[in-house]
Specification:
Blueprint (H helix, E strand, L loop, with lengths): L7 E6 L3 H12 L4 E7 L2 H11 L3 E5 L7 H11 L4 E6 L4 H9 L4 E4 L4 H12 L7 H13 L13 H11 L4 H8 L3 H15 L4 H10 L2 H9 L1
Helix pairs in contact: 2-3, 4-6, 6-10, 7-10, 7-11, 8-9
Length: about 220
């Protein structure tokens, strides 16, 4: 687990030196961020991740030579412990799904506002995912199109299960959830397994997207009121 007292260490990978430098200055204007290294292509990005062990890799999707997707595949194959956020000027739903399934924790547009970039980094380092709420519906529909069974109604979830889903959307780990609700980590895992079965998903990302699309957090608030 990352020490919350130290800055979030970031590697930037983009083939445009001016963009990299501008992004570095933007990030280091905030004390909680530290740029540990910069790469001009995917191959160098993988090497720096292996060498520097950053918390986050900001990875340009479209680079000459070894691009973002190839670098993401290499990181997954080498099982490197880094949270990858894809930087892109444009991306369609299929590619968004593909990079998330390859292990990316976020997708963010290059023209986004500074505060959204900061929020994306904070969300991802806390254990969450970032895809932008305007893209969630398309991604959920794409994921469901390939599912072997339709999701069960959200009404099947218990109050405790809805609380756990809400915690996941807030970026909580199993340990965090256990502490919050006075449960063992194994009990949290059992709850998650039951939730996956009920709504027809197979991992935390699909659950988070499903929960956002079906407004399960609002359901949890209604049960608590």
């Amino acid at each position: 687990m990352r020490d919350r007292e130290r800055p979030i260490r970031i590697v930037i990978a983009d083939d445009h030196p001016i963009f990299r430098e501008g992004l570095r200055r933007l990030l280091e204007a905030e004390p909680r961020f530290q740029v540990a290294g910069q790469a001009h292509n995917g191959l160098e990005a993988v090497r720096l991740v292996e060498e520097l062990r950053p918390d986050v890799l900001l990875l340009d999707l479209a680079m000459p030579g070894t691009g973002g997707i190839q670098a993401l595949q290499e990181i997954a194959e080498r099982r490197l412990d880094v949270k990858v956020i894809l930087l892109t000027a444009a991306i369609d739903t299929a590619d968004s799904v593909r990079v998330l399934q390859l292990g990316a924790r976020g997708v963010i547009m290059k023209e986004c506002a500074t505060h959204l970039l900061y929020k994306c980094l904070d969300t991802v380092t806390a254990g969450g995912y970032w895809v932008g709420h305007d893209r969630v519906n398309d991604i959920v529909q794409h994921l469901r199109a390939g599912a072997t069974r339709p999701p069960a109604p959200a009404a099947m979830l218990t109050r405790r299960e809805l609380q756990i889903v809400t915690a996941i959307l807030n970026g909580a780990t199993n340990k965090d959830i256990g502490s919050q609700f006075n449960l063992s980590e194994q009990t949290v895992k059992n709850h998650l397994s039951h939730i996956f079965d009920k709504v027809g998903v197979s991992n935390r990302l699909e659950l988070a997207l499903y929960a956002l699309h079906h407004k399960l957090v609002e359901g949890a608030r209604r049960q608590d009121s």
